[in-house]
Amino acid sequence: MSTRPGQESGLGGPTGLQESDVRRRGPVGRALAARPWASDVLWSVVVLLVGGLGTLAMRSTVRGSTALGLFDPSSSPLHTMTVAWLAGSVVTSSLLLVRRSRPLLVAGALTMAGVVSLGFAGVLGVVGLGLACALYSVASQRTSRTAWAAAVASFLVLGAACWWWERIGVAEMLLWMEPATAEEDYVPAAFLAAPPFSGGRRSVSLLVLLVLLGLGMATGSVARARRLHAAGLLERYRAVVRERDSSAALARAAERARIAREMHDVVAHSLSVMVALSDGAGAAMDRAPDRSREALRELSATGRSALLGMQDVLQALDPRGGEAAAAGRLADPVDADLRVVLDRFRAVGMSVAESGVELVAALETATGLAVVRIVTEALTNVLRHAPGAVAVDVIIRQLDDALEVEVRDDGGRLPSLGGGTGRGLIGMRERADLIGGSLTAGPRPEGGWYVRLLLPVSRDGSGIDT
């Protein structure tokens, strides 16, 4: 899973996937999403323009109605309705500027503004359109129950006001608009009473109001559903990223532990043997030169082996592709034969007794190698921490359901070569866990130290599920 340039993925920083990527907005949508106030201003301007154009249609309707004798010219209906219409447009446009932060408050205020306009002049104007915008914000930001409660309450209140007080609505604008041939100064011969209350005309207004509020609710609900869906996708994506990063961190930790084990094997074992060989060669230089030369040859061989092992470890760390080539050599070191390992320790003067070493050769390659490494580390610890030990035993025996490998000593007779860090014991336990075994270590009651590995292997050499 890749991230875009300049972006990070992880627990502490932003992920490569953003909400705009999930919702797939166009350039205009992304610009409005980045500047929410621009959308509020845009809708306010639209409502103001619609209100201005509606004022012209309303004035034409009032003049036509007056010319038909439906309104009494002496009551100045044109002036009253024009003022109410324009005032409603300004109030609606102003309230829409804060609809995003206070959607319920704006919806309630617009409902009351519509009631006042209908009661004062008998016109609703663009208040219904503004209320639809406010309900869009309510539906997109609040729960469905809250949004539907606000929508039903607004429709009932405004619907009742329209039913009783509306004088100029959609039906009136369509039926009573001023004819194109009407004269501006035309006055009917006598004032005709306004047509009686018509349920049909009022139903048209209520239907238009219902459609407006329904559109606001529907679009707001869709916007909320899309936002929640995008949030769910983002959360799932971030969970995947966190899991990936966690897996990568665990893999890096495991790789560091593996490299640490390899480094410890190379450095601790080889250098400990080299120190012991050099000390022995120096001590025997005068009284046993042949033995000293043999120790120096063994010292050189051990150094070359250590150098090869270190090169393999460093090549495994090379990011240019050396890991695969080095991994094979790390898995198959020079000292893969347990007898060779034991002979090397004997060469530095350690008295090592062996029993059942041939059982290791029957194990699978990876398992046998791990056993050899564990025995090597145990003997290295004897060399470092119990120098001069008289008896060192490597005992390998087959039990009913496990292979037991034990390395024990009787304690050193000389000062220790230095304190340990515990890395070797940790590495042995890690190797035992990797091959499904268990490792214990500690002091012996009679003196000295022991390391015991139990490996679930049956007598026929097959592994046992643990």
TrEMBL record:
It catalyses: ATP + protein L-histidine = ADP + protein N-phospho-L-histidine. GO terms for molecular function: ATP binding; phosphorelay sensor kinase activity; protein dimerization activity. SUPFAM superfamilies: ATPase domain of HSP90 chaperone/DNA topoisomerase II/histidine kinase (SSF55874). The chain crosses the membrane at residues 41-58, 78-98, 104-135, 147-166, 204-223. It is an enzyme of class 2 (transferase). It comes from the Bacteria. The keyword Phosphoprotein applies. Residues 366-459 form the Histidine kinase/HSP90-like ATPase domain. Residues 1-24 are annotated as: Disordered. Keywords: ATP-binding, Kinase, Membrane, Nucleotide-binding, Phosphoprotein, Transferase, Transmembrane, Transmembrane helix, Two-component regulatory system. Its EC number is 2.7.13.3. It holds the Pfam family HisKA_3. The keyword Nucleotide-binding applies. One of its GO terms (cellular component) is membrane. This is histidine kinase.
